[in-house]
Amino acid sequence: MIRHKHLLISIILACLIIVSGLPGLIRAQEDPDACAAIADDTARLSCYDEANAAKPKVPANTEEATDQAPPQKDISYLSKKWQLDEESRKTAFAIVPHRANYILLLDYNFNPNKEPYEEAYPNFDMQNEEVKFQLSLKVKLWESMFKTKADLWFGYTQLSFWQLYNTSDSCPFLETNYEPEILINYRMDEDIFGLIKNRFIQVGFDHQSNGLGGSLSRSWNRIVANFGFERGPFDMVLKTWLRIPENEDDDDNPDILAYLGYGEVVMGYHSKDWALGLMFRNNLRLEDNKSGLELDVSFPLVNSINGYLQYFVGYGQSLIDYDHFDNSLGIGVIVKDW
Protein backbone atom coordinates (compact mmCIF):
# COMPACT_ATOMS: atom_id res chain seq x y z
CA MET A 1 0.00 0.00 0.00
CA ILE A 2 2.83 2.36 0.85
CA ARG A 3 4.59 1.51 -2.44
CA HIS A 4 1.45 2.31 -4.38
CA LYS A 5 1.15 5.57 -2.55
CA HIS A 6 4.72 6.55 -3.40
CA LEU A 7 4.15 5.63 -7.06
CA LEU A 8 1.01 7.73 -7.19
CA ILE A 9 2.84 10.70 -5.70
CA SER A 10 5.66 10.32 -8.30
CA ILE A 11 3.16 10.27 -11.17
CA ILE A 12 1.40 13.38 -9.83
CA LEU A 13 4.73 15.25 -9.51
CA ALA A 14 5.76 14.29 -13.04
CA CYS A 15 2.44 15.53 -14.38
CA LEU A 16 2.84 18.81 -12.51
CA ILE A 17 6.33 19.26 -13.97
CA ILE A 18 5.13 18.61 -17.51
CA VAL A 19 2.10 20.87 -17.06
CA SER A 20 4.30 23.61 -15.63
CA GLY A 21 6.42 23.44 -18.81
CA LEU A 22 3.50 23.68 -21.28
CA PRO A 23 3.22 27.49 -21.20
CA GLY A 24 6.92 27.67 -21.95
CA LEU A 25 6.51 25.28 -24.83
CA ILE A 26 3.66 27.32 -26.21
CA ARG A 27 5.65 30.53 -25.82
CA ALA A 28 8.69 28.84 -27.37
CA GLN A 29 6.85 28.29 -30.62
CA GLU A 30 6.48 32.04 -30.85
CA ASP A 31 9.74 32.91 -29.07
CA PRO A 32 12.43 30.18 -28.65
CA ASP A 33 14.24 32.30 -26.04
CA ALA A 34 11.33 31.63 -23.66
CA CYS A 35 12.68 28.08 -23.15
CA ALA A 36 15.50 29.49 -21.02
CA ALA A 37 12.98 30.47 -18.31
CA ILE A 38 11.98 26.82 -17.66
CA ALA A 39 13.68 25.54 -14.51
CA ASP A 40 13.34 21.81 -15.07
CA ASP A 41 16.04 20.37 -17.34
CA THR A 42 13.79 17.80 -18.99
CA ALA A 43 11.05 20.30 -19.74
CA ARG A 44 13.52 22.90 -21.00
CA LEU A 45 15.09 20.39 -23.40
CA SER A 46 11.65 19.39 -24.65
CA CYS A 47 10.88 23.09 -25.12
CA TYR A 48 13.91 23.62 -27.35
CA ASP A 49 13.07 20.49 -29.35
CA GLU A 50 9.53 21.74 -29.93
CA ALA A 51 10.76 25.23 -30.85
CA ASN A 52 13.16 23.89 -33.47
CA ALA A 53 10.54 21.60 -34.92
CA ALA A 54 8.13 24.53 -35.23
CA LYS A 55 10.53 26.57 -37.36
CA PRO A 56 9.80 26.43 -41.09
CA LYS A 57 12.68 24.96 -43.02
CA VAL A 58 14.13 27.32 -45.61
CA PRO A 59 15.97 25.82 -48.58
CA ALA A 60 19.70 26.52 -48.41
CA ASN A 61 19.77 28.13 -51.83
CA THR A 62 16.75 30.41 -51.34
CA GLU A 63 18.81 33.55 -50.72
CA GLU A 64 21.09 32.74 -53.62
CA ALA A 65 18.09 32.16 -55.88
CA THR A 66 16.54 35.51 -54.99
CA ASP A 67 19.85 37.28 -55.61
CA GLN A 68 20.31 35.77 -59.04
CA ALA A 69 18.93 37.67 -62.03
CA PRO A 70 16.69 35.79 -64.46
CA PRO A 71 18.69 34.09 -67.20
CA GLN A 72 19.29 36.24 -70.26
CA LYS A 73 18.25 34.99 -73.67
CA ASP A 74 21.22 34.28 -75.91
CA ILE A 75 21.51 36.75 -78.77
CA SER A 76 22.97 35.33 -81.96
CA TYR A 77 25.87 36.94 -83.81
CA LEU A 78 23.79 38.19 -86.74
CA SER A 79 21.16 39.53 -84.33
CA LYS A 80 23.82 41.59 -82.58
CA LYS A 81 25.20 42.81 -85.90
CA TRP A 82 21.85 43.84 -87.38
CA GLN A 83 19.54 44.15 -84.33
CA LEU A 84 17.18 41.45 -85.53
CA ASP A 85 15.20 40.91 -82.29
CA GLU A 86 13.77 42.98 -79.44
CA GLU A 87 16.70 42.42 -77.08
CA SER A 88 19.32 43.48 -79.63
CA ARG A 89 17.25 46.49 -80.75
CA LYS A 90 17.62 48.15 -77.35
CA THR A 91 20.75 49.83 -78.75
CA ALA A 92 18.92 51.22 -81.80
CA PHE A 93 20.27 54.34 -83.48
CA ALA A 94 23.72 53.90 -81.92
CA ILE A 95 26.89 53.68 -83.98
CA VAL A 96 27.90 50.01 -84.06
CA PRO A 97 30.53 47.86 -85.81
CA HIS A 98 29.79 47.02 -89.43
CA ARG A 99 32.52 44.77 -90.79
CA ALA A 100 35.65 43.78 -88.84
CA ASN A 101 37.69 46.52 -87.17
CA TYR A 102 41.33 45.42 -87.05
CA ILE A 103 44.96 46.35 -87.57
CA LEU A 104 47.59 43.96 -88.92
CA LEU A 105 50.77 45.30 -87.36
CA LEU A 106 52.77 43.21 -89.81
CA ASP A 107 51.28 42.15 -93.12
CA TYR A 108 53.76 40.42 -95.45
CA ASN A 109 52.84 40.41 -99.13
CA PHE A 110 54.75 37.70 -100.97
CA ASN A 111 53.80 39.19 -104.35
CA PRO A 112 53.38 42.99 -104.07
CA ASN A 113 51.92 44.90 -107.01
CA LYS A 114 54.63 47.40 -107.99
CA GLU A 115 53.51 48.08 -111.56
CA PRO A 116 50.87 50.82 -110.94
CA TYR A 117 53.35 52.90 -108.95
CA GLU A 118 56.32 52.66 -111.32
CA GLU A 119 54.92 55.31 -113.66
CA ALA A 120 53.67 57.68 -110.97
CA TYR A 121 56.62 57.24 -108.58
CA PRO A 122 59.67 56.02 -110.57
CA ASN A 123 62.02 55.96 -107.56
CA PHE A 124 59.60 54.37 -105.13
CA ASP A 125 60.96 51.19 -103.53
CA MET A 126 57.92 49.18 -102.42
CA GLN A 127 58.51 46.77 -99.53
CA ASN A 128 56.87 43.44 -98.82
CA GLU A 129 56.21 44.37 -95.19
CA GLU A 130 53.43 46.83 -94.43
CA VAL A 131 50.58 47.61 -92.05
CA LYS A 132 46.99 46.87 -93.07
CA PHE A 133 44.01 48.13 -91.11
CA GLN A 134 40.26 48.45 -91.48
CA LEU A 135 37.71 50.76 -89.83
CA SER A 136 34.06 49.85 -90.37
CA LEU A 137 30.99 51.36 -88.66
CA LYS A 138 27.28 51.69 -89.32
CA VAL A 139 24.26 53.49 -87.92
CA LYS A 140 20.56 52.77 -88.14
CA LEU A 141 18.75 55.70 -89.75
CA TRP A 142 15.17 54.41 -89.67
CA GLU A 143 13.78 51.48 -87.69
CA SER A 144 10.70 49.57 -88.85
CA MET A 145 10.19 51.58 -92.03
CA PHE A 146 6.50 52.21 -92.71
CA LYS A 147 5.69 49.87 -89.76
CA THR A 148 7.35 46.88 -91.43
CA LYS A 149 10.31 44.70 -90.42
CA ALA A 150 12.63 46.73 -92.65
CA ASP A 151 15.36 48.97 -91.19
CA LEU A 152 17.44 51.56 -93.05
CA TRP A 153 21.18 51.51 -92.35
CA PHE A 154 24.16 53.60 -93.43
CA GLY A 155 27.55 51.88 -93.34
CA TYR A 156 31.09 53.05 -93.93
CA THR A 157 34.25 50.97 -94.35
CA GLN A 158 37.80 52.20 -94.84
CA LEU A 159 40.63 49.79 -95.70
CA SER A 160 44.21 51.10 -95.73
CA PHE A 161 47.62 49.76 -96.77
CA TRP A 162 50.50 51.60 -95.10
CA GLN A 163 54.21 51.13 -95.82
CA LEU A 164 55.05 52.00 -92.22
CA TYR A 165 58.42 50.23 -92.26
CA ASN A 166 59.53 51.91 -95.49
CA THR A 167 61.36 54.80 -93.78
CA SER A 168 63.51 55.53 -96.84
CA ASP A 169 60.34 56.67 -98.70
CA SER A 170 58.77 58.48 -95.71
CA CYS A 171 56.41 55.62 -94.77
CA PRO A 172 53.73 56.34 -97.42
CA PHE A 173 50.16 55.05 -97.56
CA LEU A 174 49.96 52.94 -100.71
CA GLU A 175 46.19 53.03 -100.92
CA THR A 176 43.00 53.55 -98.93
CA ASN A 177 39.69 52.14 -100.13
CA TYR A 178 36.61 54.14 -99.13
CA GLU A 179 33.29 52.33 -99.15
CA PRO A 180 30.05 54.03 -98.07
CA GLU A 181 26.83 52.07 -98.53
CA ILE A 182 23.16 52.39 -97.74
CA LEU A 183 21.16 49.25 -97.02
CA ILE A 184 17.55 48.31 -96.36
CA ASN A 185 17.66 45.33 -94.00
CA TYR A 186 14.51 43.19 -93.78
CA ARG A 187 14.45 41.16 -90.54
CA MET A 188 13.57 37.49 -90.92
CA ASP A 189 13.57 34.26 -88.91
CA GLU A 190 12.63 31.58 -91.41
CA ASP A 191 13.60 27.93 -91.04
CA ILE A 192 15.01 26.34 -94.19
CA PHE A 193 14.32 22.58 -94.12
CA GLY A 194 15.14 22.58 -90.41
CA LEU A 195 18.84 22.96 -91.24
CA ILE A 196 19.50 26.69 -91.08
CA LYS A 197 17.63 29.96 -90.58
CA ASN A 198 17.37 32.85 -92.99
CA ARG A 199 17.83 35.89 -90.69
CA PHE A 200 17.75 38.81 -93.11
CA ILE A 201 17.54 40.02 -96.69
CA GLN A 202 19.25 43.28 -97.68
CA VAL A 203 19.14 45.48 -100.73
CA GLY A 204 21.04 48.69 -101.23
CA PHE A 205 23.65 50.83 -102.95
CA ASP A 206 27.44 50.53 -102.55
CA HIS A 207 30.20 52.87 -103.75
CA GLN A 208 33.89 51.98 -103.54
CA SER A 209 36.87 54.09 -104.60
CA ASN A 210 40.50 54.66 -103.66
CA GLY A 211 40.43 58.44 -103.80
CA LEU A 212 43.41 58.62 -106.17
CA GLY A 213 43.71 60.32 -109.53
CA GLY A 214 45.26 59.64 -112.90
CA SER A 215 46.50 56.14 -113.62
CA LEU A 216 46.05 55.10 -109.97
CA SER A 217 42.33 55.91 -109.80
CA ARG A 218 39.93 53.02 -109.18
CA SER A 219 36.20 53.15 -108.41
CA TRP A 220 32.85 51.48 -109.07
CA ASN A 221 29.19 51.60 -108.01
CA ARG A 222 26.95 48.61 -107.29
CA ILE A 223 23.41 47.61 -106.49
CA VAL A 224 23.73 44.93 -103.82
CA ALA A 225 21.52 42.15 -102.44
CA ASN A 226 22.69 40.20 -99.38
CA PHE A 227 21.22 37.18 -97.61
CA GLY A 228 22.07 36.23 -94.01
CA PHE A 229 21.84 32.67 -92.65
CA GLU A 230 22.54 31.27 -89.20
CA ARG A 231 22.64 28.04 -87.21
CA GLY A 232 23.89 28.23 -83.64
CA PRO A 233 27.41 29.70 -83.61
CA PHE A 234 27.72 29.34 -87.39
CA ASP A 235 26.71 32.18 -89.72
CA MET A 236 26.86 32.75 -93.48
CA VAL A 237 26.18 35.85 -95.58
CA LEU A 238 25.77 35.53 -99.34
CA LYS A 239 26.60 38.87 -100.97
CA THR A 240 25.62 39.56 -104.57
CA TRP A 241 26.01 42.67 -106.69
CA LEU A 242 25.22 44.22 -110.05
CA ARG A 243 27.58 46.91 -111.30
CA ILE A 244 26.11 50.23 -112.38
CA PRO A 245 27.62 50.98 -115.82
CA GLU A 246 29.84 54.03 -116.33
CA ASN A 247 30.87 56.01 -119.37
CA GLU A 248 33.83 54.44 -121.12
CA ASP A 249 35.92 57.60 -120.67
CA ASP A 250 35.24 57.67 -116.90
CA ASP A 251 35.67 53.95 -116.21
CA ASP A 252 38.97 53.31 -114.39
CA ASN A 253 38.48 49.56 -114.25
CA PRO A 254 36.13 48.33 -116.98
CA ASP A 255 37.05 44.66 -116.53
CA ILE A 256 36.66 44.51 -112.73
CA LEU A 257 33.83 41.96 -112.91
CA ALA A 258 36.16 39.57 -114.74
CA TYR A 259 38.22 39.41 -111.53
CA LEU A 260 35.72 39.99 -108.70
CA GLY A 261 32.70 38.35 -110.28
CA TYR A 262 29.14 39.01 -109.12
CA GLY A 263 29.27 38.06 -105.46
CA GLU A 264 31.03 36.43 -102.54
CA VAL A 265 30.21 34.26 -99.56
CA VAL A 266 31.33 35.16 -96.03
CA MET A 267 31.18 32.48 -93.32
CA GLY A 268 31.99 32.67 -89.63
CA TYR A 269 32.07 30.56 -86.49
CA HIS A 270 31.88 32.50 -83.21
CA SER A 271 32.45 31.02 -79.76
CA LYS A 272 32.73 32.93 -76.49
CA ASP A 273 36.31 34.04 -77.15
CA TRP A 274 37.36 32.58 -80.51
CA ALA A 275 36.18 33.27 -84.04
CA LEU A 276 36.98 31.74 -87.42
CA GLY A 277 36.17 33.41 -90.72
CA LEU A 278 36.24 32.65 -94.43
CA MET A 279 35.52 34.83 -97.46
CA PHE A 280 35.41 33.37 -100.95
CA ARG A 281 34.52 34.86 -104.31
CA ASN A 282 34.83 33.62 -107.87
CA ASN A 283 34.09 35.07 -111.30
CA LEU A 284 32.22 31.86 -112.24
CA ARG A 285 33.96 31.58 -115.61
CA LEU A 286 35.12 28.26 -116.96
CA GLU A 287 37.86 29.95 -118.92
CA ASP A 288 40.20 32.39 -117.23
CA ASN A 289 38.75 31.61 -113.81
CA LYS A 290 39.66 34.09 -111.03
CA SER A 291 39.09 33.82 -107.30
CA GLY A 292 39.77 35.53 -104.01
CA LEU A 293 40.06 33.77 -100.64
CA GLU A 294 40.52 35.24 -97.18
CA LEU A 295 40.94 33.14 -94.01
CA ASP A 296 41.12 34.63 -90.54
CA VAL A 297 41.20 33.57 -86.90
CA SER A 298 40.59 35.67 -83.81
CA PHE A 299 41.85 34.47 -80.42
CA PRO A 300 41.67 35.78 -76.82
CA LEU A 301 44.12 38.51 -75.88
CA VAL A 302 42.82 41.14 -73.42
CA ASN A 303 39.24 42.26 -72.61
CA SER A 304 37.50 43.26 -75.87
CA ILE A 305 40.71 43.14 -77.94
CA ASN A 306 41.59 39.83 -79.57
CA GLY A 307 44.66 38.66 -81.39
CA TYR A 308 44.12 38.34 -85.14
CA LEU A 309 45.63 36.33 -87.99
CA GLN A 310 44.65 36.91 -91.61
CA TYR A 311 45.66 35.19 -94.85
CA PHE A 312 44.61 36.43 -98.29
CA VAL A 313 45.27 34.82 -101.65
CA GLY A 314 43.87 35.75 -105.05
CA TYR A 315 42.45 38.84 -106.71
CA GLY A 316 40.78 41.93 -105.27
CA GLN A 317 42.48 42.43 -101.91
CA SER A 318 42.31 46.16 -102.73
CA LEU A 319 40.97 48.21 -105.63
CA ILE A 320 44.44 48.93 -107.01
CA ASP A 321 45.05 45.17 -106.95
CA TYR A 322 41.71 44.05 -108.38
CA ASP A 323 43.54 42.50 -111.36
CA HIS A 324 46.69 41.45 -109.47
CA PHE A 325 47.28 38.10 -107.74
CA ASP A 326 48.12 38.83 -104.07
CA ASN A 327 49.41 36.42 -101.47
CA SER A 328 49.74 37.94 -98.01
CA LEU A 329 49.84 36.89 -94.36
CA GLY A 330 49.37 39.26 -91.44
CA ILE A 331 49.15 39.33 -87.65
CA GLY A 332 47.71 41.98 -85.38
CA VAL A 333 44.68 42.75 -83.21
CA ILE A 334 40.93 43.00 -83.78
CA VAL A 335 38.12 44.65 -81.85
CA LYS A 336 35.86 41.89 -80.55
CA ASP A 337 32.23 42.53 -81.55
CA TRP A 338 30.39 39.35 -80.46
Could you list some keywords that capture this structure?
338 residues; Outer membrane phospholipase (ompla), Chain C; 2 domains; 6 helices
Could you explain how this protein is built, in words?
- With 338 residues, the chain is an alpha+beta fold.
- The protein has two domains: 2-67, no CATH class; 77-335, Outer membrane phospholipase (ompla), Chain C.
- Helix content is 19%, strand content 42%.
- It contains six helices and 13 strands.
- Strands 2-3-4-5-6-7-8-9-10-11-12-13 form a twelve-stranded antiparallel barrel.
- Helix 1 (2-30) runs parallel beside helix 2.
- The protein is elongated.
Please outline the helices and strands:
Layout: H1 2-30, H2 41-54, H3 62-67, H4 77-82, E1 96-97, E2 102-109, H5 115-120, E3 129-142, E4 150-162, E5 173-192, E6 196-209, E7 219-231, E8 234-243, H6 257-260, E9 263-270, E10 275-282, E11 291-302, E12 305-314, E13 326-335
Antiparallel strand pairs: 1-3, 2-3, 2-13, 3-4, 4-5, 5-6, 6-7, 7-8, 8-9, 9-10, 10-11, 11-12, 12-13
Would you summarize the structure shown here?
This protein is α+β, with helices and mostly antiparallel strands. It is 19% helix and 42% strand.
Strand order of the largest sheet: 2-3-4-5-6-7-8-9-10-11-12-13
Query: Mind describing the biggest β-sheet?
Result: 12 strands, antiparallel, barrel
Regions with little confidence, pLDDT below 50 for 5+ residues: 1-8, 11-28
Number of strands: 13
- The CATH class of the largest domain turns out to be Mainly Beta
Summarize model confidence as the mean pLDDT.
Answer: 86
Described by the principal axes of the CA atoms, the overall outline is: elongated
CATH H level of the largest domain: which superfamily? Phospholipase A1
Percent of residues in beta strands: 35-45%
Q: In the CATH scheme, what's the topology name of the largest domain?
A: Outer membrane phospholipase (ompla), Chain C
| DSSP helix fraction | 10-25%
How much is the radius of gyration in Å?
37 Å
